[in-house]
Write a structure and sequence with these properties.
The protein is α/β, with parallel strands linked by helices and about 425 residues long. Helices cover about 30% and strands about 25% of the residues. The chain has helices at about 20-25, 35-45, 65-70, 85-90, 110-115, 125-140, 180-185, 210-225, 255-265, 280, 315-320, 405-410, and strands at about 5, 10-15, 15, 30-35, 55-60, 75-80, 100, 120-125, 145-150, 175, 190-195, 235, 270-275, 285-295, 300-305, 325, 335-340, 350-355, 365, 390-395, 395-400. Helix 5 (about 110-115) packs across helix 6. A hairpin with a 2-residue loop joins strand 2 (about 10-15) and strand 3. Strands 4, 14, 15, 16, 17, 18, 19, 20 and 21 form a nine-stranded mixed sheet that branches. The protein has two domains: about 5-30 and about 280-410, Lyase, Ornithine Decarboxylase, Chain A, domain 1 (Beta Barrel); about 105-275, Alpha-Beta Barrel (TIM Barrel). The structure holds pyridoxal-5'-phosphate (PLP). Pyridoxal-5'-phosphate binds near residues 61 and 102. This is Diaminopimelate decarboxylase. Specifically catalyzes the decarboxylation of meso-diaminopimelate (meso-DAP) to L-lysine. Belongs to the Orn/Lys/Arg decarboxylase class-II family. LysA subfamily.
Length: about 425
């Protein structure tokens, strides 16, 4: 459920007309709904009720500081994968005790900065990383709280580029080696083992792979405890999928996910951490774009819009589907379009053979489900300035990242004195 609905045939974001925002800010523009962000966080928080837990928003899905503050003010933790994301979470007012640091390639600088700034836990992915964290913590006279990310060798049945839990993926340590790695961790002076971490992929539409992974984690918990390790937290990662097509069967709900977590892990007396990104932010965002031209091809009709692959790369990168709807709700979807952007690549195609309402140059469309892995993956390819972001809350809206001017974009380059 989201808060983007038609009122008298006009698309609204909560109580604000999307066309009004487009007029004020220009297009393309990302629009996020505070109410949807809050609702999705609350669904996860409620789903784990009765178990000690922390819902850590996966910052990589949407790292705008205003979005992070919206969630952080509700008590959300943050899952970060770089010191840049860590500093964004801090800028949003989230304390270090609620920030977990994931990722396979944390640099020494990143480890040092986050240890000094305060960190809830490092999700560690290799023995060399354990060694580095221990060394740096010892230098600083600190003890680093650590969970080791295990790779359970489970097929997440999702797009290959976002599956992370198979043995051939670069993530985690093989679960078969977990005992040895935990023994190594326990031998290091700067490390305190606090739990186990797992994350098997993104956009999962079935609970079965999660269940398989969590059963393995439950077994491992008992094994590691028997060997004397303190396993007081289980970080279960993110990955629950969202319905990108309104007309399709929906993925499991957070409540169903929560019930499965309780079933597989509820007996272990642990604090549960989860790291949802897409499910919290995905359907809380639209990308709004204006039609530049309608172009008649040989055997197809192109809808050329002013958003492009540099603004929303998911269709080009993952063959992802986004529903594209008119901002002025009009006629039945009677016209078939290829929806494309202006970038000089054939990959700059958002949809092929899409039945839509008849649209004219100058009219607005909205890409649904664009709040996660949208603006964060935007670039300036083709020297298109970074797409702006707007946050709506009730009847008010604010630009939370302005569109840079061409001058600002160009002024970042410098010409050497010898040129
Ligand atoms: C990407 C990622 C997430 C978030 O995944 P979603 O599918 O957006 O919920 C959580 N944890 C880790 C370690 C990740 O890499």
């Amino acid at each position: 459920m989201d808060h983007f609905n038609y009122r008298d045939g006009v698309l609204f974001a909560e109580d604000v007309s999307v066309a009004d925002i487009a007029r004020a800010v220009g297009t393309p523009v990302y629009i996020y709904s505070t109410a949807t962000l809050k609702r999705h966080f609350q669904l996860f928080d409620d789903a784990l009720a009765g178990m000690p837990h922390l819902v850590c928003f996966a910052v990589k899905a949407n790292s705008n500081v205003a979005v992070l503050k919206t969630l952080g003010d509700l008590g959300a933790g943050m899952d970060v994968v770089s010191v840049g994301e860590y500093l964004r979470a801090k800028a949003a007012g989230v304390p270090g005790e609620r920030i977990v640091f994931s990722g396979i390639g944390k640099t020494r600088e990143e480890i040092r900065t986050t240890l000094l700034g305060g960190i809830r836990q490092f999700n560690v992915e290799s023995e060399p990383e354990l060694q580095a964290i221990s060394d740096i913590a010892s230098e600083l006279g600190l003890i680093a709280p650590v969970a080791v990310r295990v790779n359970p060798d489970v097929d997440a049945h999702t797009h290959a580029k976002i599956a992370t839990g198979k043995s051939e993926n670069k993530f985690g340590i093989p679960i078969s080696r977990a005992q040895a790695v935990y023994a190594f961790a326990a031998s290091l002076p700067g490390i305190q083992v606090v739990g186990i971490d797992v994350h098997i992929g993104s956009q999962l539409t079935d609970l079965a792979p999660f269940r398989a992974a969590y059963q393995k984690v439950a077994e491992l918990t008992e094994v590691l405890r028997a060997e004397g390790h303190t396993i007081s937290r289980l970080d279960l990662g993110g990955g629950l999928g969202i319905p990108y097509r309104r007309d399709n069967s929906a993925p499991p709900l957070p409540s169903e996910y929560g019930a499965m977590v309780r079933e597989t892990l509820g007996h272990l007396d642990v604090e549960i951490e989860i790291e949802p990104g897409r499910l919290i932010a995905g359907n809380a965002g639209l990308l709004v774009s204006r039609v530049i031209y309608v172009k008649e091809g040989e055997d197809r009709r192109f809808l050329i819009v002013d958003a492009a692959m540099n603004d929303l790369i998911r269709p080009a990168m993952y063959e992802a589907h986004h529903d594209i709807i008119p901002v002025d709700e009009s006629l039945a979807p009677s016209t078939v379009y290829d929806v494309v952007g202006p970038v000089c690549e054939t990959g700059d195609t958002f949809a092929r053979g899409r039945a839509m309402a008849p649209l004219n140059a100058g009219e607005l469309v909205a890409f649904r489900s664009a709040g996660a892995y949208g603006a964060v993956m935007a670039s300036e390819y083709n020297s298109r300035p970074l797409v702006p972001e707007v946050l709506v809350n009730g009847d008010q809206f604010a630009v939370i990242r302005p569109r840079p001017s061409y001058e600002e974009m160009i002024a970042r380059d410098t010409i050497p004195a010898w040129l």
